[in-house]
Amino acid sequence: MERLDEAAAYSLPGPGVTRLYASEEHRRLLPLLSSWMRCAGLEPELDAVGNLVGRCPRALAGEPALILGSHQDSVIEGGKYDGMLGVAMPLLALEALREEGREPNCAVEVVAFGDEEGVRFPFTLVGSRALAGTLDPKVLGGEDEEGVTLREALARLGADTSRLAEVTRDPERVLGYVEVHIEQGPVLENEGLALGVVTALTGIERHRVRVSGKADHAGTTPMEDRRDALVGASAMVLEADSLLRRLGSLVGVIGQLSVRPGAVNVIPSEVEFTLELRSPEPEKRLAGRREILAALADIAKERGLEMTTGLNYEAEGVACAEWLIQALEQACRQEGQPTRRLFSGAGHDGLAMHDLTDIGMLFLRCRDGLSHHPDEAITADDAEAGTRVIMRLLDNMAGTP
């Protein structure tokens, strides 16, 4: 818990934790994470996309390794446990084993992924996609809101993007991927359980919607003659929310909205907003997409507005490997921890790592199911239970099933 408090200090000023990918806060955090890795007996290395990778001697020698880890970045004003828990906990588990004179029964790597949240740049899962070999090098030219390219940001971080091809892993040298994460939901707390074993990760898609009207003088243009992009976009937001409540097996959010020209006495001419949809069932997500976008187009037509949409991110849901589910359940039983299987409604690096290897995931109870918020909280007892389960998993892990 002290380590997680310490990591949370590497943040922009303000509530919670704001540590964006390839930012100055990210750069300043790396020496701390490197010190944790060395305490765990791992050799740290910053790769071409800003992942900090710690390898044990057996992994450095080329043995197939179990990869554990999670992400370093946060949302804006997020919590201190989302992502960082899955970096700190396996490192502490390895350090504890080392202090007891024990070694894991397989080669181990711990990866602190640079990007999972997708807040700063218009893409996400950059670090895990690079490991899986599915990252399009063109993303290095993508820009943040200040016009800084990812390539430039990574250079400031100290990453050598010319070595991008070296990040991709050989599937034959990876045993599997395991991530520890707060649940980000209320199921475990409602059932009085500290830990849960994940069965699958949700599918996610993100759209950018542009609504165009006509700017004009707010004092001289009659109400009936206006083509107000913001009024139209507001109707779209309400309609999308109404449909999401009705459709079922689908959740979504409009989380960003920008207005132009943004003057107090000018009718808005253009609005851009994001639309994110999530569902474990691809057919329901796609059907929901069609219905929502059609409804938004109807609103634009009724109000004399133009609307364009673009799909800028899509990841299908993936299943966790049964052998890793059972391995995590066995480790929980050995540590006297009752557990249950549950689905993840959030996306994680496992969505990308699934293209490389089998994935498994352990959830930790969080207070009120709250996440992406400064009040995100876990208990020390639950953190200890999770650490001991990971220690037991490493004791049990002798190779692929």
UniProtKB/TrEMBL annotation:
Top-level taxon of the source organism: Bacteria
Record-listed allantoate binding positions: 206, 265, 278
Pfam family for this entry, one: Peptidase_M20
Cofactor(s) this protein requires: Mn(2+); Zn(2+)
Note on how the cofactor is bound: Binds 2 Zn(2+) ions per subunit.
Gene3D superfamilies from the UniProt entry: 3.30.70.360, Zn peptidases (3.40.630.10)
A molecular function GO annotation: hydrolase activity, acting on carbon-nitrogen (but not peptide) bonds, in linear amidines
Residues involved in Zn(2+) 2 binding: 82, 117, 372
Residues given in the record as Zn(2+) 1 binding sites: 71, 82, 181
Record key words, sorted: Hydrolase, Manganese, Metal-binding, Zinc
Subunit structure: Homodimer.
Protein family per UniProt: Belongs to the peptidase M20 family.
Protein name stated in the entry: Zn-dependent hydrolase
